[in-house]
Design a protein that fits this description.
- The protein is about 35% helix and about 20% strand.
- By secondary structure, it is α+β, with helices and mostly antiparallel strands.
Length: about 270
């Protein structure tokens, strides 16, 4: 009798513990199922929250004033409105200074934004530009995020984009590709040759990606396709692009609808 009592007591304690653990598990499961907040928490962890547009500016603020301003910001403009414009463009990765002065670099950034947003291709910013910035327009969507560090040339929008690993946009530039009679070839290429400085044809800091086709600076970079096949960029941007682009970097050249020339011409030029 003396030996059996401890064994019986241990058995009873163990049985009670098992029962209690079972009750606790059932209670937690029931509470989780019955709790709307717990269910909402689970849904939030399974599905990321959608992005919301920013709230409308409060009357009297700078943001409110630019959304309702008359006239346009253009070369020579300066002040807080220009600074806000530059800050918004820089946030979207357009190549722009943030100094409060509407200079030529700012004009080029505005032109690039207008191209991506599908607006008139001019170098000025009015209330409509600020309204579109607030609405989230002008964000460039990378087509080949798996290409690592690479360049994307969107011929439909006439912009050149440096893209870093994981599809992160580094910066967006205005460009001018091949005109209809001498189109830029579509496809995926790699930089195979680099020529610093200015050559006899006026090409500055050239990055060749197939035969004579190159990304290079040039004196004339209109808002439309005008080159002899190359991808022209403004000379002030040529040196920094040349420094970033390395041998072997992919160059993806495409149009929105996939239509265009796939013939590699021997006489491609600036």
């Amino acid at each position: 009798m003396t030996l059996r009592m401890p064994v019986i007591r241990a058995f009873v304690v163990l049985t009670v513990c098992v029962v209690c653990i079972g009750w606790c598990a059932v209670g937690v499961a029931s509470a989780t199922a019955a709790s709307p907040s717990a269910a909402r928490s689970h849904r939030r962890s399974s599905h990321p929250r959608p992005r919301h547009r920013r709230r409308a500016p409060v009357p009297g603020t700078l943001a409110y004033r630019v959304l309702h301003m008359r006239g346009s910001l253009r070369l020579g403009s300066h002040g807080s409105a220009v600074l806000l414009l530059q800050d918004e463009l820089a946030r979207l990765r357009y190549e722009v200074p943030v100094n409060g002065r509407f200079d030529e670099a700012t004009a080029r950034a505005v032109l690039a934004f207008r191209k991506v947003a599908g607006l008139e291709r001019v170098e000025s910013a009015n209330a409509g530009i600020f309204q579109r910035l607030l609405a989230g327009a002008g964000r460039f969507h990378v087509r080949y995020p798996g290409d690592g560090n690479h360049v994307e040339a969107d011929l439909s929008r006439q912009v050149l984009v440096e893209v870093e690993r994981h599809g992160r946009v580094r910066r967006i530039l205005t460009m001018s590709s091949g005109k209809p009679s001498t189109p830029t070839v579509l496809g995926r290429f790699r930089v195979y040759s680099k020529a610093p400085g200015t050559n006899s044809e006026g090409m500055v800091d050239s990055n060749y990606f197939i035969r004579g086709y190159a990304i290079h600076g040039y004196a004339e970079v209109p808002a439309y396709a005008a080159s002899h096949g190359c991808l022209r960029i403004p000379i002030p941007n040529a040196a920094s692009v040349f420094a970033w682009v390395q041998f072997g970097y992919p160059v993806d050249v495409y149009t929105e609808n996939g239509r265009g020339s796939r013939v590699v011409r021997a006489d491609a030029g600036p």
